[in-house]
Design a protein that fits this description.
This is Peptidase family M48. GO terms for molecular function: metal ion binding; metalloendopeptidase activity. By secondary structure, this protein is mostly helical. It contains 12 helices and 5 strands. The strands form 2 sheets. A 3-stranded mixed β-sheet has the order 3-5-4, sandwiched between helices. Strand 1 and strand 2 form a beta hairpin. The longest helix has 24 residues.
């Protein structure tokens, strides 16, 4: 019986194998958008009700303008590459939360939160675009669905039941709080190093597609390092160290420009609205 169950699990996971566009990384995802997105949208709405949305009009407008520019670039990419149904499933939304936490996150389906505490690290519009590109990349690459798939593998059956409730019962609440940490003092729980590195790369490509300066993706992590953020030794953290991210982004910059140029037909700097 155990052998049969194991074979079934392997078969399911093989069916869920796909490739992340641009990076080409193989991923396993058995959680459908129909399962995860209603829960994501419900949790995001609940988060906004329970936290202080910034009343700073200038900062909020900048976050939302950058978010829309990058999400539009991602939307164009998806539609140009046969990902129309996926593009249609996103419900992009960008909110600034009045909180000193140095963090930002994006839930599946394009629900983004910036905390005011990260704005000094961003320092400028291009810095905001670097962080925004990174967070949007998590949604684009379906890192949240992969996290759910991992949990699914650990708790067969339970995830589907919880997701089906769209986050309304205690089981779903526990699931989302465990995986995403919504409402916690540190914001979203860390993705794996693989996901973080991939989001750094994709985010750089996306910010170039949207017409922003990709050098700021590097400078954001220089400022983060100078600010003392993520000072933990790398082997103790699921995130790459600041130094590793800086080195990786510098090395990836020419590749990111090539990807963006290819998509933008040779015009890296789109007009930003």
């Amino acid at each position: 019986m155990k052998k049969i169950i194991s074979l079934i699990v392997v078969f399911i996971f093989l069916l869920g194998c796909s490739t992340v566009p641009i990076t080409g990384r193989k991923r396993i995802n058995v959680v459908s958008d129909d399962e995860i997105l209603p829960a994501s949208f419900a949790q995001y709405e609940g988060f906004l009700k329970e936290n202080k949305v910034s009343t700073n009009v200038k900062q909020t407008n900048e976050i939302q303008n950058v978010g829309m520019n990058i999400s539009k670039a991602v939307d164009r990419f998806m539609r140009a590459n046969g990902m129309v149904s996926e593009a249609d499933s996103y419900r992009w939304e960008f909110n600034l939360i009045d909180d000193n936490t140095v963090n930002a996150w994006c839930m599946p389906g394009g629900k983004v939160v910036f905390y005011t505490g990260i704005l000094p690290i961003c320092a400028n519009t291009d810095g905001i675009a670097a962080v925004m590109g990174h967070e949007v990349a998590h949604a684009f690459a379906k890192h949240g669905q992969e996290r759910m798939t991992t949990a699914y593998g650990q708790q067969l059956g339970g995830i589907a039941v919880a997701l089906g409730t769209s986050g309304q019962d205690s089981e779903a609440q526990v699931l989302w709080n465990t995986i995403y940490g919504v409402g916690s003092q540190v914001g979203m729980l860390a993705y794996s190093r693989t996901h973080e590195t991939e989001a750094d790369k994709l985010g750089m490509v996306f910010m170039i597609m949207a017409g922003y300066n990709p050098e700021e993706a590097i400078q954001v992590w220089v400022r983060m390092s100078e600010n003392g953020g993520s000072s933990q030794p790398e082997f103790l953290s699921t995130h790459p160290s600041n130094e590793t991210r800086i080195e990786n982004l510098r090395a990836y910059l020419p590749t990111a420009i090539t990807h963006a140029k290819k998509f933008n037909s040779g015009n890296v700097s789109n007009n930003k609205q």
